[in-house]
């Protein structure tokens, strides 16, 4: 169900005057650039979105909910390609100049205009089922780690291992279609630390010394990401007495988990007493973020999320789209954590890291 209420700024975001907030981490253009000519960065990113068209077309072709899906999928591919080529010729066409938000929004608009509402629904359901079957084993392995800091590091690595299930990356979508993805293999094959941005040791120190009363987590993908990565981490926060708000998309976009899907997932993971493997989950809340993209502009979130977040003292943005590409440098009025895997070469190059490198960026706000 779509949110009908007016969107509002996320209340913990520093005001634009204080932080000059813009939901775009990588500068695609500068004031001195020719407004009628695409910059090299814009061209590179447009090409990245062009390369993703075949995987989106393939998913759309097999959507059983859409009449004449193959022909409509072909129209999607042609129309979206034409728009991207137009933006290369004139970056101010189609609402430009382009950035991640605009390119994602146009792609979703074209899909929806052709009747496609959730082309990744089937694969999300399959991956959620697989991940649910592993949930208890993942929790048992985590709980068996007695040292709190080592357990935290294990949970953080679990988030990265789950986050690789991202069908918005053309390379990962192709790999997934060919071989599927194993959470355990992804966990074991994470790039060694130090990662490209690695504040994990600092976070572990603060973890042992302070308790956050409420954490808001902007979640990312379905499957292993949410079930084997984020929910075990949220459960650990609950164990410590922190109230946790999981903020999920209003509408489907790629394989991101939606608000309604997340409610169902958590209901399946809880036992008859409302517990997550022995931990009381009454302080686990699920909110509709008001977002409908795999990236997020925090100047526009749902009123529900704004209300639930107003007194939080920890904000976590998870995933490459939300935590890296659009909000890596976003400033908040409370502690914040940006965590995600780098799955685009363009992002790796900008950060000076490696493809499939990890970002764990912790910023503490002084309360004095």
TrEMBL record:
InterPro entries (alphabetical): ARMT-1-like_metal-bd_sf, ARMT1-like_metal-bd, At2g17340, At2g17340_3_helix_bundle, Type_II_PanK
Name of the protein: Damage-control phosphatase ARMT1-like metal-binding domain-containing protein
Any GO BP: coenzyme A biosynthetic process
PANTHER family per the UniProt record, alphabetical: 4'-PHOSPHOPANTETHEINE PHOSPHATASE, PANTOTHENATE KINASE
Pfam families attached to this UniProt entry: ARMT1-like_dom (PF01937)
SUPFAM superfamilies: AF1104-like
GO cellular component, one term: cytosol
Signal peptide positions on this chain: none
Record keywords, A-Z: Hydrolase, Manganese, Metal-binding, Nickel
Cofactor(s) the protein needs: Mn(2+); Ni(2+)
Residue ranges of domain Damage-control phosphatase ARMT1-like metal-binding in the record: 52-359
Organism per entry: Trapa incisa
Highest taxon, organism lineage: Eukaryota
Gene Ontology terms, MF aspect: ATP binding; hydrolase activity; metal ion binding; pantothenate kinase activity
């Amino acid at each position: 169900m779509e949110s009908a209420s007016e969107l509002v700024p996320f209340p913990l975001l520093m005001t634009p005057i204080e932080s000059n907030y813009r939901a775009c981490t990588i500068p695609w253009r500068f004031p001195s650039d020719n407004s009628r000519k695409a910059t090299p960065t814009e061209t590179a990113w447009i090409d990245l979105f062009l390369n993703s068209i075949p995987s989106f077309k393939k998913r759309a072709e097999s959507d059983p909910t859409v009449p004449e899906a193959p022909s409509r999928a072909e129209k999607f591919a042609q129309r979206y390609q034409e728009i991207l080529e137009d933006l290369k010729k004139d970056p101010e066409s189609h609402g430009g100049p382009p950035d991640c938000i605009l390119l994602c929004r146009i792609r979703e608009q074209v899909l929806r205009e052709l009747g496609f509402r959730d082309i990744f629904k089937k694969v999300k359901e399959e991956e959620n089922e697989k991940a649910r079957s592993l949930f208890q084993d993942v929790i048992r392995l985590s709980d068996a780690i007695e040292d709190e800091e080592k357990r935290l590091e294990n949970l953080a690595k679990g988030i990265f291992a789950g986050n690789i299930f991202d069908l918005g990356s053309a390379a990962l979508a192709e790999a997934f279609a060919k071989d599927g993805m194993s959470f355990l293999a992804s966990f074991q094959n994470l790039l060694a630390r130090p990662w490209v941005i690695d504040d994990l040791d600092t976070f572990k120190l603060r973890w042992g010394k302070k308790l956050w009363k409420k954490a808001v987590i902007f979640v990312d993908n379905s499957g292993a990401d949410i079930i084997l990565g984020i929910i075990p981490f949220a459960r650990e926060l609950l164990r410590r007495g922190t109230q946790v708000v999981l903020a999920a998309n209003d509408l489907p976009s790629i394989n991101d988990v939606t608000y309604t899907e997340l409610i169902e997932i958590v209901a399946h993971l809880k036992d008859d007493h409302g517990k997550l493997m022995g931990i009381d989950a009454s302080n686990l809340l699920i909110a509709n973020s008001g977002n409908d993209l795999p990236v997020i502009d925090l100047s526009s979130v749902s009123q529900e999320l704004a209300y639930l977040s107003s007194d939080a003292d920890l904000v976590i943005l998870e995933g490459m789209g939300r935590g890296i590409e659009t909000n890596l440098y976003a400033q908040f009025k409370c502690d914040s954590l940006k965590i995600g895997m780098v799955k685009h070469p363009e992002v790796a190059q900008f950060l000076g890291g490696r493809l499939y490198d990890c970002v764990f960026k912790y910023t503490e706000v002084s309360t004095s």
